[in-house]
Amino acid sequence: MSALSRPEFNSEEAAFAHLEKIVWAGMPVCPHCGGVDRITKVKANLAKRIREGLWRCGQCKGQFTAKVGTVFEHMRLPLHKALQAVYLMTSSKKGISAHQLHRILEITYKSAWFLAHRIREAMRDGHVGQFGGGGGIVEVDETFIGRLKGKEKKAAFHHKMKVVALIDRNTGKARTLVVEGTTAKHLMPIVLANVAREATINTDEHWGYRPVRDYFAGHGTTSHGTGVYVDPANPENHSNTVEGYFSIFKRRMKGIYQHCGEQHLHRYLAEFEFRYNNRVALGFNDPDRSRQALLGIAGKRLTYRRFDGVPHA
Ligand SMILES: [Zn+2]
Questions:
Q1: How many domains does the structure of the chain reveal?
Q2: Is residue 280 pLDDT above 80, yes or no?
Q3: Distance from Cα 63 to the centre of ligand 1, integer Å
């Protein structure tokens, strides 16, 4: 027995039953008319080209599967392989590349690449609610992502991708967002939207955070420029957690994902954030994490049109 010997990873029928349980919680809903009565299962029949997982609505006569309205809609791959991919991606500590998925699942590299992005989309958090509620400490930092060659280096500041991360010390959760720039004009709206006013915010001495003290309960800074990373008078005053978060993200990006176009960065960030926020130290195991990712597939319909720049294998 292995984790991948479970029925939903090996049969289409079991795979759909698994997805239906998560998407509908036991009650099929017609995506065409919203009906919940007179919904019947259509028996799969390969000879008659009737696919697995099909349901029929007695009200509008429409047909549908549990994939409609999720990141798996319009996916041609067998669902049980997609579920294997979710499990592999959510259980591997460092993530898994499209190349590895392509080899393990025996699907084309292109299919694996699309599948990985569908799953990243499922991992994307809605970022509902604020960090630091009840007066905790929230660490905030910003960084640049991306490698630049030759001429590009001169304009590095403008070309590199900019990202802000927030970490709630009380819950241990992280939130990451792509930003246009790193001045107060760009950073403050993010901090104001994502952090409760009663919180204390810890940052480095970047001037983009200067207005923080006017809006929040406190602003702790450490002067990294002069080599101070922890305030000896107040050991709580540091932003080392968020800096560690970025350094691991950058290492992963280098090691696993060869290059990352700007249009995909938010999905890689979402994947990294998902793994961090559902980590073992916070009480999550592999099946929990896989289930958590599947819960995120609904309401995130994704089509091929939204993907530009598919890399070559
Ligand atoms: Zn209907």
A1: 1
A2: yes
A3: 8
